[in-house]
Task: inverse folding
């Protein structure tokens, strides 16, 4: 067991974790932030995607001890002061979700994509998002929502 | 068998688990209509607490018998009309609508309330939707499966909304002393134009609650041209919670003092625990307890295994890695797909011994046919793999007055899960409560409830503490109720004019080899037909009237079943998902042999309907629809040909066509593909034309289902569960491939504007997509793929 300080969504938490305990299970079981989902446990499906210092990581294979003190953002931390991000808004407008289980991971990946590439092509979206599985097959809407969010972000920046 | 069930059109297949769920809705003779675990008083009281203010519900208690008898709850069942179970209007004007069925991604939590809100005549922005409690006495047919929610509930949702609206009008009429006929409503306001008076629904709620519930024949419905909510692309009611990561799903349940459990079963189906290193496991950090459950030997209930209960998920997962179990495999499955495949090839050389249907004289017709076509098709096992792993939180509570069970679960048949779990742990059904959570994908997997039973049994054995049972992905992949693999041999004959004159099909599938057959609530096998062995759940043939049985003058269908000890169950469009593949690909082979265009040939076959089936039921109002109608089939085929410009693809691309009827949906689809020299298949676009009646309650959700069905079909091209020595090889998504974004084709969706009753769309768009793609691959390559997955024939999907 190890004592670590985790900075999640701007808040410091002191938690005691097993040395190999993935961040996912600290978020879900200890911090009760259940928006980050368990899908496969081996970084295949992307349901557990969170941001580490702004970049997407798979929290199901990342030991919490390895990210102590660094900036972790989860789906619960995207909206600031109750204001949804452009990506979250686009997800609602495009009615992307079917079952919705994968969507927090999809949104975390999409958010990171747009930070890195504000105007991605279809091929760039496909390449970036292929680590996230949607069993319901909402990919067309995910793609459309990302483009729509990109447009909204470009509009607000100009 | 219940009378109402016999009304299901013969040319349609529904899993027995759903027929059983429906049978439970039939009122028992002499039973009090309103009796149940939650009384009306209790319900209203609960509403008041939930609403946090003064709220008034509508009541049917003053309603007439006619109102009850005339309100079809689906299948003509005289379910009681209970507006108060669906609508709650507070004196503050707040409108709460209860959505009765499990939300599994099909959008029902939004769609059913849209229908109520439309007839109630309120603003959608003023509506709060809540998941209804699980209560068979209040909510008929409370399940998600068979694409049945809309066809069963559409009419009763309209009635609930219209009845509530008319009670508000009656209250205003009394208040103002004017005839009800002079009163109008609009968006939550009641108006008497002549006297320029109006009141809000909230102001009238208390008075309206005392009004009699109108009889069904007194209900007035809106003209569809005036719809403001039905037919609109209203976004899902849980979207905000989803995009902000709020708790909704079964895995998200947290209870004070809750422990987390894992459960290990024998990798070979049906194996038992001989021994396990329980003492060592109990000493591991965070482990609360570890024990063996003997189970009842029923894969749909409780199979033997080892449970580990721990303080948290990771402690449970970590302890499991150290678990060493010695399995007794003396009665376990030894099944092998390789062995079955060899057997089936031999069996296909002659018709099967069991005859499912026969008309005309197939052998003579084949002997005299101008052209003959013969082909052997194979499809492997597949697994559902909803992204939320199976889980249930259960709390067995010891109580001197009778032990109790409380459950939180993502399930498709909640009352089945509740009663199954209660039975296995010995709790009286009336002492068991189930809270329905949002479901992270269904696809038929969660029509089975064994994970709920497991959680209840573990909670009891652990001494009555709340326990969340967490399956891993590997559990989900190696202990599914698989879509059964199988084989189909065909022979067909054409006359000199290229008309289909003979069809001989031989289904080679499986029967249930478990000592206790895989059942939920007493259901049995798959395809219903003449006496004899029955195929496993979700296997076999959809029905004896499956297309083209009624469209071929000389037709024979036979089957051969091998005993199988691999649990199988309904998978999205059960029966149809494989029938469409084999029939629609083989029919294309026959069309090619006829030298005619595929669309013309298909329409020609639909134009030669033979004598009506003996038990042909036709449609019934507000019910499930009228079965496969050739005119609807032909219209969808013509429409998809037009929309896709079928037969004239851009250079380098190729078209394939297919049609399939299932779940009352008529669907014609065209796929546009290209195939490169490395046998890489690229699906560029799929046009889908569906006739699911009207209105399309929510076009956004309906189109989403169709788009997802096409992606599911692209997944199906590459997926296979390999079974050898009674166990599954694939363990996780690294070897069992789900479609990812780059393989997603463009999808064009069009719903025919017909006037048939609206039916469901979770399933029927899926079956025709695979054969449309494979027919296009034939057009591209001249090679006929007769095996799923296509990787077995050297192809891949890019």
Result:
């Amino acid at each position: 067991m190890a004592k670590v300080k985790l900075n999640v969504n701007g808040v410091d938490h002191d938690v005691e974790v097993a040395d190999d305990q993935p961040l996912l299970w600290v978020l879900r079981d200890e911090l009760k932030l259940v928006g980050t989902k368990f899908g496969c446990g081996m970084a295949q499906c992307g349901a557990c995607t969170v941001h580490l210092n702004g970049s997407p990581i798979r929290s199901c294979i990342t030991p919490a001890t390895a990210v102590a003190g660094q900036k972790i953002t989860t789906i619960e931390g995207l909206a600031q002061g109750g204001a949804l991000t452009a990506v979250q808004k686009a997800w609602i407008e495009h009615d992307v979700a079917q079952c919705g289980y994968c969507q927090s991971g999809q949104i975390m990946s999409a958010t990171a994509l747009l930070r890195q590439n504000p105007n991605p092509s279809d091929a760039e979206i496909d390449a970036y998002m292929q680590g996230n599985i949607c069993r319901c097959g909402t990919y067309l809407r995910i793609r459309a929502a990302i483009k729509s969010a990109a447009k909204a972000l470009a509009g607000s920046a100009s | 068998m219940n009378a109402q069930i016999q009304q299901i059109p013969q040319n349609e297949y529904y899993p027995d688990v759903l027929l059983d769920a429906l049978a439970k809705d039939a009122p028992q003779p002499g039973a009090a209509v309103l009796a149940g675990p939650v009384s009306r008083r209790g319900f209203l009281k609960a509403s008041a607490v939930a609403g946090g203010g003064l709220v008034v519900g509508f009541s049917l208690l003053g309603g007439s018998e006619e109102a009850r008898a005339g309100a079809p709850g689906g299948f003509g069942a005289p379910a009681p009309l209970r507006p108060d179970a669906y609508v709650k209007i507070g004196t503050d004007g707040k409108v709460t609508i209860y959505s009765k069925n499990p939300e599994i991604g099909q959008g029902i939590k939004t769609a059913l309330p849209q229908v109520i809100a439309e007839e109630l005549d309120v603003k959608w922005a003023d509506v709060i939707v809540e998941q209804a409690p699980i209560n068979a006495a209040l909510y008929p047919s409370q399940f998600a499966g068979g694409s049945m929610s809309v066809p069963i509930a559409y009419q009763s949702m309209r009635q609930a909304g219209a009845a509530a609206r008319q009670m508000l009008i009656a209250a205003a009429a009394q208040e103002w002393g004017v005839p009800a006929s002079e009163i109008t409503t609009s968006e939550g306001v009641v108006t008497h134009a002549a006297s320029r008076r109006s009141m809000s629904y909230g102001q009238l709620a208390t008075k309206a609650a005392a009004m009699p519930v109108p009889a069904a024949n007194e209900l007035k419905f809106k003209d569809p041209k005036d719809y403001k909510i039905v037919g609109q692309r209203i976004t899902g009611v849980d979207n905000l919670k989803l995009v902000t990561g709020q708790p909704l799903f079964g895995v998200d349940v947290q209870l004070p003092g809750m422990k987390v459990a894992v459960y290990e079963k024998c990798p070979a189906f049906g194996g038992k625990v001989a021994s396990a290193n329980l003492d060592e496991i109990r000493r591991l950090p965070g482990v609360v307890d570890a024990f063996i459950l003997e189970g009842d030997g029923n894969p749909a209930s409780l199979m033997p295994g080892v449970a580990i209960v721990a303080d948290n998920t990771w402690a449970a997962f970590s302890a499991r890695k150290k678990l060493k179990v010695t399995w007794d495999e003396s009665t376990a499955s030894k099944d092998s797909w390789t062995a079955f495949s060899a057997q089936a090839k031999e069996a296909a050389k002659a018709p099967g011994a069991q005859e499912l249907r026969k008309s005309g004289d197939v052998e003579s017709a084949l002997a005299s046919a101008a052209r003959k076509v013969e082909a052997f098709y194979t499809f492997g096992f597949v697994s559902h793999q909803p992204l939320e792993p199976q889980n249930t939180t259960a709390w067995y509570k010891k109580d001197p007055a009778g032990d109790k069970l409380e459950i939180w679960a993502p399930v498709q048949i909640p009352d089945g899960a509740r009663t199954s779990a209660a039975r296995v742990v010995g709790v009286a059904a009336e002492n068991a409560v189930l809270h329905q959570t949002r479901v992270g994908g269904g696809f038929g997997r969660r029509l089975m409830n064994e994970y709920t039973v497991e959680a209840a049994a573990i909670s009891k054995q652990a001494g009555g503490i709340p326990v969340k049972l967490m399956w891993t992905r590997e559990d989900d992949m190696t202990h599914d109720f698989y879509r059964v693999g199988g084989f189909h041999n065909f022979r067909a004959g054409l006359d000199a004019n290229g008309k289909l004159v003979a069809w001989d099909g031989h289904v080679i599938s499986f029967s249930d080899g478990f000592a206790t057959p895989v059942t939920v609530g007493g259901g049995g096998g798959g395809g219903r037909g003449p006496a004899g062995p029955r195929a496993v759940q979700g296997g076999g043939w959809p029905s004896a009237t499956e297309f083209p049985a009624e469209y071929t003058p000389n037709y024979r269908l036979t089957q051969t079943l091998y005993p199988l000890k691999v649990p199988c169950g309904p998978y999205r469009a059960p029966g149809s998902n494989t029938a469409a593949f084999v029939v629609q690909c083989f029919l294309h082979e026959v069309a090619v042999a006829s030298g005619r265009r595929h669309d013309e040939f298909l329409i020609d076959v639909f134009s030669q309907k033979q004598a009506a089936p003996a038990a042909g039921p036709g449609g019934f109002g507000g019910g499930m629809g009228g079965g496969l109608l050739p005119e609807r089939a032909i219209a969808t085929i013509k429409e998809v040909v037009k929309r896709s410009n079928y037969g004239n693809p851009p250079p380098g691309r190729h078209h394939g066509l297919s049609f399939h009827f299932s779940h009352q949906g008529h669907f014609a689809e065209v796929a546009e593909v290209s195939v490169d020299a490395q046998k890489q298949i690229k699906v560029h676009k799929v046009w889908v034309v569906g006739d699911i009646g009207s209105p399309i309650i929510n076009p956004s959700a309906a189109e989403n289902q169709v788009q997802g069905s096409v992606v599911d079909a692209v997944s199906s091209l590459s997926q296979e569960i390999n079974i050898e020595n009674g166990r599954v090889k694939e363990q996780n998504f690294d070897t069992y491939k789900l479609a990812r974004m780059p393989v997603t084709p463009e999808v064009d969706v069009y719903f025919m504007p017909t006037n048939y009753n609206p039916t469901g769309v979770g399933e029927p768009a899926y079956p025709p997509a695979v054969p449309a793609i494979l027919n296009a691959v034939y057009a591209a390559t001249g090679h006929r793929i007769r095996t799923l997955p296509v990787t077995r024939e050297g192809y891949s999907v890019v």
